Amino acid sequence: MGPRLCAAATSLWLAAFVTSQPAAAATLRVMVDKISFAPAQVSAHVGDTIEWVNSDFLAHSATDRKKAWDIFLPPNATRSVKLTRAGEIDYYCRFHPNMVGHISVAP
Amino acid sequence: MHRKLTAALVAASLVGGASAYAQGAKPNDAQIAHIAYTAGQIDIEAAQQALKKSKNADVRAFAQDMVRDHKAVNEKALALVKKLKVKPQDNDTSRSLAAQAKAKRAELAKLSGAAFDKAYAQNEVAYHKAVDSALESTLIPSASNQELKDLLTTGLKIFQGHEQHAEHVVSGLK
How confident is the model over B83-127, as pLDDT tens digits? Predict the structure, then answer.
Protein backbone atom coordinates (compact mmCIF):
# COMPACT_ATOMS: atom_id res chain seq x y z
CA MET A 1 0.00 0.00 0.00
CA GLY A 2 1.47 3.35 -1.10
CA PRO A 3 1.66 6.16 1.43
CA ARG A 4 -1.01 8.17 -0.40
CA LEU A 5 -3.47 5.29 -0.43
CA CYS A 6 -2.76 4.67 3.19
CA ALA A 7 -3.45 8.33 4.07
CA ALA A 8 -6.68 8.24 2.07
CA ALA A 9 -7.78 5.07 3.84
CA THR A 10 -6.98 6.61 7.19
CA SER A 11 -8.94 9.78 6.52
CA LEU A 12 -11.88 7.72 5.24
CA TRP A 13 -11.80 5.66 8.35
CA LEU A 14 -11.56 8.77 10.50
CA ALA A 15 -14.46 10.39 8.65
CA ALA A 16 -16.54 7.28 9.11
CA PHE A 17 -15.61 7.13 12.76
CA VAL A 18 -16.37 10.78 13.41
CA THR A 19 -19.72 10.78 11.62
CA SER A 20 -20.90 7.57 13.24
CA GLN A 21 -20.06 8.79 16.74
CA PRO A 22 -22.76 10.78 18.50
CA ALA A 23 -21.72 13.70 20.75
CA ALA A 24 -19.55 12.44 23.60
CA ALA A 25 -21.72 10.99 26.38
CA ALA A 26 -22.08 13.39 29.27
CA THR A 27 -22.67 12.88 32.94
CA LEU A 28 -25.38 15.21 34.23
CA ARG A 29 -25.47 15.80 37.95
CA VAL A 30 -28.64 16.28 39.95
CA MET A 31 -28.26 17.41 43.55
CA VAL A 32 -30.64 15.89 46.08
CA ASP A 33 -30.85 18.34 48.93
CA LYS A 34 -33.49 19.61 51.35
CA ILE A 35 -36.09 17.22 50.01
CA SER A 36 -35.83 18.27 46.38
CA PHE A 37 -34.09 17.41 43.10
CA ALA A 38 -32.02 20.27 41.66
CA PRO A 39 -32.20 20.92 38.81
CA ALA A 40 -35.64 19.38 38.66
CA GLN A 41 -35.60 19.57 34.81
CA VAL A 42 -32.72 18.05 32.87
CA SER A 43 -32.13 17.83 29.10
CA ALA A 44 -29.98 14.90 28.03
CA HIS A 45 -29.14 12.61 25.12
CA VAL A 46 -29.26 8.85 24.76
CA GLY A 47 -26.01 7.49 26.20
CA ASP A 48 -25.72 10.21 28.86
CA THR A 49 -25.61 9.32 32.51
CA ILE A 50 -27.67 10.99 35.23
CA GLU A 51 -25.87 11.11 38.53
CA TRP A 52 -27.80 11.89 41.74
CA VAL A 53 -25.77 13.21 44.65
CA ASN A 54 -27.82 12.85 47.83
CA SER A 55 -26.57 15.29 50.45
CA ASP A 56 -29.68 14.95 52.63
CA PHE A 57 -29.51 13.04 55.90
CA LEU A 58 -32.39 10.87 54.69
CA ALA A 59 -32.62 8.10 52.14
CA HIS A 60 -34.47 8.98 48.94
CA SER A 61 -35.21 7.24 45.68
CA ALA A 62 -35.23 8.25 42.03
CA THR A 63 -38.11 6.21 40.68
CA ASP A 64 -39.21 6.29 37.05
CA ARG A 65 -43.00 6.63 36.91
CA LYS A 66 -42.97 4.11 34.03
CA LYS A 67 -40.93 1.78 36.28
CA ALA A 68 -37.92 1.47 33.92
CA TRP A 69 -35.72 2.08 36.95
CA ASP A 70 -35.98 2.58 40.70
CA ILE A 71 -32.78 3.83 42.24
CA PHE A 72 -32.27 3.85 45.99
CA LEU A 73 -30.32 6.91 47.14
CA PRO A 74 -28.84 6.39 50.61
CA PRO A 75 -27.89 9.50 52.64
CA ASN A 76 -24.63 11.11 51.51
CA ALA A 77 -24.24 8.80 48.52
CA THR A 78 -24.04 9.10 44.74
CA ARG A 79 -25.95 6.81 42.37
CA SER A 80 -26.40 6.94 38.63
CA VAL A 81 -28.39 5.60 35.71
CA LYS A 82 -27.49 5.48 32.01
CA LEU A 83 -30.14 6.75 29.62
CA THR A 84 -30.70 4.17 26.92
CA ARG A 85 -33.86 5.44 25.23
CA ALA A 86 -35.10 8.77 23.93
CA GLY A 87 -38.23 10.20 25.50
CA GLU A 88 -39.68 12.11 28.40
CA ILE A 89 -39.07 10.69 31.85
CA ASP A 90 -40.98 11.73 34.95
CA TYR A 91 -39.47 10.45 38.15
CA TYR A 92 -40.12 10.93 41.88
CA CYS A 93 -39.02 9.81 45.33
CA ARG A 94 -41.04 6.82 46.53
CA PHE A 95 -40.56 7.85 50.15
CA HIS A 96 -41.41 11.54 49.64
CA PRO A 97 -43.63 11.76 46.54
CA ASN A 98 -43.56 15.56 46.79
CA MET A 99 -40.02 15.29 45.34
CA VAL A 100 -40.31 15.17 41.54
CA GLY A 101 -37.97 15.50 38.58
CA HIS A 102 -38.09 15.35 34.81
CA ILE A 103 -35.55 14.28 32.18
CA SER A 104 -35.94 15.04 28.46
CA VAL A 105 -33.86 12.49 26.55
CA ALA A 106 -33.07 13.43 22.92
CA PRO A 107 -31.85 10.72 20.48
CA MET B 1 -66.78 9.44 61.80
CA HIS B 2 -64.60 8.11 64.54
CA ARG B 3 -61.47 8.57 62.45
CA LYS B 4 -62.44 12.07 61.52
CA LEU B 5 -63.11 12.89 65.15
CA THR B 6 -59.72 11.54 66.18
CA ALA B 7 -57.98 13.52 63.46
CA ALA B 8 -59.89 16.60 64.55
CA LEU B 9 -58.86 15.96 68.14
CA VAL B 10 -55.22 15.71 67.22
CA ALA B 11 -55.48 18.86 65.15
CA ALA B 12 -57.43 20.57 67.93
CA SER B 13 -54.81 19.60 70.45
CA LEU B 14 -52.04 21.01 68.29
CA VAL B 15 -54.00 24.12 67.49
CA GLY B 16 -55.29 24.32 71.07
CA GLY B 17 -51.74 24.12 72.29
CA ALA B 18 -50.90 26.87 69.88
CA SER B 19 -53.75 29.13 70.95
CA ALA B 20 -52.88 28.56 74.61
CA TYR B 21 -49.45 29.90 73.74
CA ALA B 22 -50.96 32.72 71.72
CA GLN B 23 -52.82 33.96 74.79
CA GLY B 24 -49.65 33.97 76.80
CA ALA B 25 -46.25 33.60 75.24
CA LYS B 26 -45.64 31.58 72.08
CA PRO B 27 -43.82 28.27 72.60
CA ASN B 28 -40.13 28.73 73.23
CA ASP B 29 -37.44 26.77 71.37
CA ALA B 30 -37.10 24.24 74.21
CA GLN B 31 -40.83 23.50 74.02
CA ILE B 32 -40.86 23.46 70.22
CA ALA B 33 -38.00 20.95 70.20
CA HIS B 34 -39.93 18.78 72.69
CA ILE B 35 -43.14 18.91 70.64
CA ALA B 36 -41.34 18.08 67.38
CA TYR B 37 -39.40 15.22 68.96
CA THR B 38 -42.56 13.83 70.60
CA ALA B 39 -44.47 14.01 67.32
CA GLY B 40 -41.71 12.00 65.62
CA GLN B 41 -41.56 9.47 68.45
CA ILE B 42 -45.32 8.94 68.23
CA ASP B 43 -45.08 8.08 64.55
CA ILE B 44 -42.21 5.65 65.20
CA GLU B 45 -44.33 3.86 67.82
CA ALA B 46 -47.32 3.75 65.45
CA ALA B 47 -45.06 2.23 62.78
CA GLN B 48 -43.70 -0.33 65.22
CA GLN B 49 -47.26 -1.38 66.04
CA ALA B 50 -47.96 -1.73 62.30
CA LEU B 51 -44.83 -3.85 61.83
CA LYS B 52 -46.06 -6.19 64.56
CA LYS B 53 -49.62 -6.44 63.29
CA SER B 54 -49.67 -5.99 59.52
CA LYS B 55 -48.90 -8.56 56.84
CA ASN B 56 -49.54 -6.17 53.96
CA ALA B 57 -46.31 -5.51 52.02
CA ASP B 58 -47.14 -1.86 51.20
CA VAL B 59 -48.18 -1.06 54.76
CA ARG B 60 -45.05 -2.72 56.14
CA ALA B 61 -42.78 -0.89 53.69
CA PHE B 62 -44.44 2.40 54.61
CA ALA B 63 -44.02 1.69 58.33
CA GLN B 64 -40.34 0.87 57.81
CA ASP B 65 -39.91 4.17 55.95
CA MET B 66 -41.55 6.02 58.85
CA VAL B 67 -39.23 4.41 61.41
CA ARG B 68 -36.15 5.21 59.29
CA ASP B 69 -37.10 8.82 58.49
CA HIS B 70 -38.43 9.86 61.89
CA LYS B 71 -35.43 8.31 63.62
CA ALA B 72 -33.11 10.24 61.31
CA VAL B 73 -35.00 13.51 61.90
CA ASN B 74 -35.07 13.01 65.66
CA GLU B 75 -31.35 12.23 65.73
CA LYS B 76 -30.78 15.50 63.88
CA ALA B 77 -33.01 17.31 66.37
CA LEU B 78 -31.16 15.81 69.34
CA ALA B 79 -27.79 16.76 67.86
CA LEU B 80 -29.06 20.30 67.29
CA VAL B 81 -30.44 20.85 70.81
CA LYS B 82 -27.19 19.51 72.21
CA LYS B 83 -25.22 21.91 70.05
CA LEU B 84 -27.46 24.81 71.03
CA LYS B 85 -27.38 23.71 74.68
CA VAL B 86 -31.18 23.68 74.78
CA LYS B 87 -32.90 21.17 77.03
CA PRO B 88 -36.21 20.06 75.45
CA GLN B 89 -39.00 21.10 77.78
CA ASP B 90 -42.16 19.05 78.33
CA ASN B 91 -45.36 21.02 77.87
CA ASP B 92 -49.14 20.66 77.52
CA THR B 93 -49.04 20.17 73.74
CA SER B 94 -46.49 17.34 74.03
CA ARG B 95 -48.51 15.77 76.82
CA SER B 96 -51.81 15.85 74.96
CA LEU B 97 -50.16 14.51 71.80
CA ALA B 98 -48.73 11.60 73.77
CA ALA B 99 -52.06 10.89 75.50
CA GLN B 100 -53.97 10.87 72.21
CA ALA B 101 -51.37 8.67 70.54
CA LYS B 102 -51.69 6.18 73.37
CA ALA B 103 -55.48 6.11 72.93
CA LYS B 104 -55.05 5.64 69.17
CA ARG B 105 -52.65 2.74 69.65
CA ALA B 106 -55.15 1.07 71.99
CA GLU B 107 -57.91 1.56 69.43
CA LEU B 108 -55.76 0.11 66.61
CA ALA B 109 -54.66 -2.78 68.82
CA LYS B 110 -58.22 -4.13 68.70
CA LEU B 111 -58.17 -4.33 64.91
CA SER B 112 -56.48 -6.86 62.67
CA GLY B 113 -55.93 -7.72 59.02
CA ALA B 114 -57.33 -5.36 56.39
CA ALA B 115 -59.26 -3.34 58.99
CA PHE B 116 -56.04 -2.59 60.87
CA ASP B 117 -54.15 -1.72 57.66
CA LYS B 118 -56.82 0.72 56.58
CA ALA B 119 -57.16 2.37 59.99
CA TYR B 120 -53.38 2.69 60.39
CA ALA B 121 -52.84 4.16 56.92
CA GLN B 122 -55.77 6.57 57.25
CA ASN B 123 -54.54 7.71 60.63
CA GLU B 124 -51.08 8.29 59.15
CA VAL B 125 -52.63 10.66 56.59
CA ALA B 126 -54.58 12.53 59.29
CA TYR B 127 -51.69 12.59 61.74
CA HIS B 128 -49.17 13.96 59.25
CA LYS B 129 -51.73 16.53 58.13
CA ALA B 130 -52.18 17.73 61.71
CA VAL B 131 -48.44 17.83 62.39
CA ASP B 132 -47.79 19.67 59.11
CA SER B 133 -50.42 22.26 59.93
CA ALA B 134 -48.97 22.76 63.44
CA LEU B 135 -45.48 23.15 61.97
CA GLU B 136 -46.68 25.70 59.43
CA SER B 137 -48.97 27.74 61.64
CA THR B 138 -47.19 27.65 64.99
CA LEU B 139 -43.92 25.82 65.42
CA ILE B 140 -41.92 27.24 62.50
CA PRO B 141 -43.08 30.87 62.97
CA SER B 142 -42.44 30.66 66.72
CA ALA B 143 -38.93 29.19 66.53
CA SER B 144 -36.38 31.87 67.29
CA ASN B 145 -33.15 30.00 66.53
CA GLN B 146 -32.50 29.93 62.78
CA GLU B 147 -31.03 26.40 62.75
CA LEU B 148 -34.08 25.08 64.60
CA LYS B 149 -36.34 26.93 62.15
CA ASP B 150 -34.42 25.38 59.23
CA LEU B 151 -34.67 21.86 60.64
CA LEU B 152 -38.41 22.29 61.24
CA THR B 153 -38.81 23.59 57.68
CA THR B 154 -36.98 20.56 56.31
CA GLY B 155 -39.12 18.42 58.63
CA LEU B 156 -42.27 19.96 57.18
CA LYS B 157 -41.21 19.00 53.63
CA ILE B 158 -40.39 15.47 54.77
CA PHE B 159 -43.72 15.05 56.55
CA GLN B 160 -45.64 16.51 53.62
CA GLY B 161 -43.94 13.76 51.60
CA HIS B 162 -45.07 11.21 54.19
CA GLU B 163 -48.62 12.54 53.96
CA GLN B 164 -48.64 11.95 50.19
CA HIS B 165 -46.98 8.56 50.61
CA ALA B 166 -49.64 7.60 53.17
CA GLU B 167 -52.36 8.72 50.76
CA HIS B 168 -50.89 6.40 48.11
CA VAL B 169 -50.94 3.54 50.61
CA VAL B 170 -54.59 4.28 51.50
CA SER B 171 -55.64 4.38 47.84
CA GLY B 172 -53.81 1.09 47.23
CA LEU B 173 -55.83 -0.58 49.99
CA LYS B 174 -59.22 0.20 48.48
Answer: 999 999 999 999 999 999 999 999 999 999 999 999 999 999 999
Reported as type and span, the H/E element at residue A50 is strand A49-54
- A3-31 burial: b if 16+ Cβ within 10 Å, else e: eeeeeeeeeeeeeeeeeeeeeeeeebebe
- Residue B4 CA neighbour count, 13 Å, CB half: 1
Residue B122 parent element (H or E): helix B113-134
User: Cβ separation of A98 and B69 shorter than 8 Å?
Assistant: no
The beta-carbon neighbor of B69 closest among A34, A36, A58 is A58
Query: Mutating which of A33, A96, A99 best tests the B interface, going by the most B Cβ atoms within 10 A?
Result: A96
Q: How far apart are CA A58 and CA B64, in angstroms?
A: 13
B164–A95 C-beta distance less than 8 A:
no
pLDDT in tens, B62-94: 999 999 999 999 999 999 999 999 999 999 999
Residue type, B124: E
Length of chain B, in residues: 174
Pick the closest to residue B169 from B61, B91, B76 (CA basis): B61
